[in-house]
Design a protein that fits this description.
By secondary structure, this protein is α+β, with helices and mostly antiparallel strands. The protein has a single domain (2-326), classed as Alpha/alpha barrel (Glycosyltransferase). It has helices at residues 2-6, 9-25, 54-68, 76-89, 114-131, 134-150, 189-205, 211-226, 265-272, 290-299, 316-326, and strands at 27-28, 33-34, 37-41, 44-49, 52-53, 91-92, 97-98, 101-102, 112-113, 162-163, 227-228, 233-234, 237-240, 253-256, 275-279, 285-289, 309-313.
């Protein structure tokens, strides 16, 4: 993105370097999936968490699309390969949505979530813009409709986060755990507005009559339900006052502000520290998160330190969103 805006070849070089690291270091050739978290030391990787997350794989697709846009040709075939991986391993044809996670050897869990589908939609839209292949746009449209229309009808017309295997609402998932930054409980204000953004991006390519009105509904509902001028802060989660309503309701919520969360190594690596370090030298060793690497490639906000150690900052929006929620 930085290279496309500013034309500085250094951004393209840094994006290529980050893309190659994501492709080569995070990829598990034995099980054909992307490791969620690795340690990179002395030119070698040690897998810390080999869970297969659709969320993380969607970020790989996003990275491939954005890497291809400024002319990193080796990223182009990986767009189709990553999409094929998501379709093979995560796609739930009956639901028209992606499943969420699997073990390293691809045993799917029963958990289903909207978050992976939201970021998959973002990645699919980018893949379409990078290639012009309509298959990605078709899939993005299907997911967007199923989440923001069909599934939202089950939860007051807003987007709920957590579901059972059959895509029925799980009202209690993580209700008593406010420390999970990847699967927070409650209606998430940023996700209502993020879906509004994605619907409008989809509308650039397909003139569907429901997109703009639905985007307005989600944006307004999220803002009204979660804003709080009195504290000059953003409420991080809202709960429905009744769990039987099926229509849009922007006022019937009880708000819940999440307490300060402990900063974990993974959280810092994925969203806060802003740096994933790759090294061919003998001293440096860092934790690399798949989402952090992908965001860094998409933004191409990379800085080169030395031939032994190169640091790739993560995209600022991710850092900001996490920092505001946690205040760590």
């Amino acid at each position: 993105m930085a290279y496309r805006h500013f034309g500085d070849a250094r951004y393209q070089d840094d994006a290529r370097h980050a893309f190659e690291f994501l492709r080569d270091a995070h990829w598990d050739a034995q099980h054909e999936g992307y490791d969620w978290e690795i340690e990179w030391r002395d030119g070698r990787k040690r897998t810390l968490d080999g869970t297969r997350h659709c969320y993380g794989t969607a970020f790989v697709l996003l990275a491939c699309a954005h890497a291809a846009m400024p002319g990193i040709d080796e990223a182009k075939p990986m767009i189709d390969e990553t999409f094929a991986l998501m379709e093979k391993r995560f796609w739930d044809a009956d639901a028209g949505l992606y499943a969420d996670e699997a073990t390293p050897d691809w045993q799917l869990s029963d958990y289903r979530g909207q978050n992976a589908n939201m970021y998959a939609t973002e990645a699919l839209l980018a893949a379409y813009e990078a290639t012009g292949h309509v298959i990605y746009l078709d899939r993005a449209e299907k997911i967007a409709g199923n989440i923001t229309l069909r599934q939202a009808k089950l939860s007051h017309g807003l987007v709920w986060e957590h579901f059972h295997r059959d895509w029925s609402i799980d009202w209690h998932y993580n209700e008593s755990d406010s420390s999970n930054i990847f699967r927070p409980w409650g209606f998430q204000p940023g996700h209502q507005t993020e879906w509004a953004k994605l619907l409008l991006i989809l509308g650039r390519h397909r003139a569907l009559p429901w997109l703009a009105p639905r985007a307005v509904e989600l944006f307004d509902a999220g803002s009204a339900a979660h804003g709080t001028a009195a504290t000059a802060a953003c409420i991080t989660a809202s709960a429905p006052t009744t769990r039987s309503a099926t229509t849009t309701n922007t006022s019937g919520f009880r708000r819940k502000a999440s307490p300060r969360r402990r900063c974990s190594v993974r959280a810092r690596a994925a969203s806060a520290s802003g740096i994933a370090t790759m090294s061919s030298g003998a001293t440096a060793g860092r934790i690399s998160s798949i989402t952090g690497m992908a965001r860094g490639i998409a933004s191409s906000r990379a800085t080169t330190a030395s031939t032994a150690t190169r640091k790739v900052p993560l995209a600022r929006p991710t850092i900001t969103r996490w920092a505001r929620a946690t205040k760590c």
